[in-house]
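Handout for the seminar on molecular recognition.
Each group receives one record of this type.
Step one: identify the two inputs.
Step two: read the structure output and locate the region that could contact nicotinamide-adenine-dinucleotide.
Step three: write two sentences on what you found, then compare them with the reference statements printed after the record.
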Amino acid sequence: MECGTIGWSMWRKSLDKPIRIALIPGDGVGGEVMAEALPCLEWARSRGRSLEASPFPYGAEHYLATGETISNVAFDELRDGYDAILFGAVGDPRIPDGRHAEAILLRIRQGLELTVNFRPCRQPSPQTQMPDLDLEVFRENTEGPYCLQGSTEPGRAVDFAIHTEPAVRRLLEAAFRRAEVRNLSLTLAHKANVLKHGHGLWVRVFEDLRKTHPGVAARAMHADALLCALVQDPTAFGVIAADNYLGDLISDLCAAFIGGMGVAPSLSWAPHRPFRCTVLAEPVHGSAPDIAGKGLANPVGMLLSTALLFRHLGWEPEAKEVESAVARALEAGAKTRDLGGTLGTAAMGTAIRSCLPH
Ligand code: NAD
Ligand code: IPM
Ligand code: MN
């Protein structure tokens, strides 16, 4: 089944069983924003959606207490027994090299082959400065420098970046298809003028796909020039496709256009494994150690990620209701501190929920 407005297929592991969602709150504000998403799952259930949600403890606390990041058994269970993972964030100042975060989050993204990281960037409420903004970042989510291969030697440090044609093609196919379905322009961000091998491959595959998608207004831009043009007029862009590293940077910049890190959502999936894919819904932001534990985090990015998950599951009415509840709450003046308001995380979550139909 094709979900019309979003343009991706609805997949699930088993049609006759409840949707199984793994909850991984992680570290810092991850748990605080996750707490506001849980009632939305309950709300969907109260409307007749069949789902089961199970918590997983993975994160810094669990790692420091047990030495375990994510066990092989748990990883297999996530891959084979769940339709989706709802993820908070990982990162903890007690583990400055972030090794547990790599072993959990990158393992999930890479192990589940979640090539496409979809990071849409629209104003969460119409009462904002750029109501016409309609950006969608398609970030490759498994490769590039995130292969974590390299070395530190005396006076020299090396980080490799690996780009494979199948993953590049999958990401770009998804981006072309999305631009086609939504009639948006498509821009590839690259630095093939320097990264001749890796980004050279991206440009070659892009030029190849352009021939099979003649209806898409597609252009490849050097990422540095793209960033300047993007800041000057973000409304001139539609879909932006990028490798893992550039896509990470571009999506945080795009978050700034819509209110900052607290409001940006994402969904990741494996286009080549449609019936065996556990998707990952997670806000774009991290564990925000500077505000963690204070009840200040904005839950909007998490709630909009939950809406993306609902849409992926084919629950379009629930996806729309959550998105419009966010918009209505913001329009009514409910705002956390990052948006210039005074509400804490729980009060913001309550304000949004009060805008959901009963
Ligand atoms: P960050 O996204 O955690 O925070 C950046 C800034 O945005 C901070 O000022 C923070 O207070 C603010 N912010 C983030 N989320 C917010 C929210 N929901 N509401 C209001 N303000 C919010 O990025 P960072 O500080 O660079 O990284 C902190 C840790 O998180 C690091 O360990 C990093 O590796 C990790 N990280 C994890 C993820 C993830 O799990 N997906 C993403 C990014 C960073
Ligand atoms: C993100 C984060 C991660 C990334 C980190 C925590 C590894 O910044 O989800 O955007 O770089 O992908
Ligand atoms: Mn990031």
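Reference statements: Residues 75 and 352 are 33 Å apart (CA to CA). The chain has a mean pLDDT of 94.
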